[in-house]
Write a structure and sequence with these properties.
By secondary structure, the protein is an all-alpha fold. It is built from seven helices and no strands. It has helices at residues 6-36, 40-53, 57-73, 77-90, 95-107, 111-122, 126-152.
């Protein structure tokens, strides 16, 4: 019986891992391109499948956010919210995921989810979240003004 050295098996494992990582990175780029080119059904399919294969939390969150963006673009707000929630579950400090989760929850009237995600956005370091804080605050302010205006008439 011929025994291969341990380093041989480690090399094979590392090569397989590198191949899988490169494939996943390529699929994530394919997802980005599909969203950019407004091929939303393709983006949803690719992003959801690649999210399942990624080990890196940031990349997994990005795939879910891209799927959410595609759902949002075709008017499927509930599915978008679910994708943003999965992004935040994968990377709890992901600012874009938190903002998009809050916005989609607000659109659906889920104010508890809006408040929960919104608090996490505004609690971050000002330098990192100034744009998302402004976007979130402006969204809530404009929505509140619209609701107040409707109640007056």
């Amino acid at each position: 019986m011929h025994h291969r050295p341990f380093h041989y098996y480690m090399t094979v494992c590392l090569l397989l891992l590198a191949t899988v990582s490169a494939h996943s990175a390529g699929k994530l780029q394919e997802c980005r391109n599909a969203v950019k080119n407004e091929k939303y059904q393709v983006a949803i399919s690719v992003c959801q499948s690649v999210a399942e294969t990624l080990d890196d939390d940031e990349s997994k969150a990005e795939a879910h956010i891209l799927a959410g963006d595609a759902f949002s673009a075709i008017g499927k707000t509930l599915q978008a919210m679910r994708s943003y929630k999965e992004a935040v579950d994968a990377d709890e400090d992901n600012q874009k995921g938190l903002v998009e989760l809050a916005e989609s929850a607000f659109k659906l009237g889920d104010f508890s989810q809006t408040k929960s995600a919104g608090k996490r956005v505004t609690a971050k370091d000002k330098k990192k979240s100034i744009l998302t804080k402004c976007k979130f605050s402006c969204l809530l302010e404009s929505k509140a003004q619209k609701l107040m205006h409707k109640k007056q008439y």
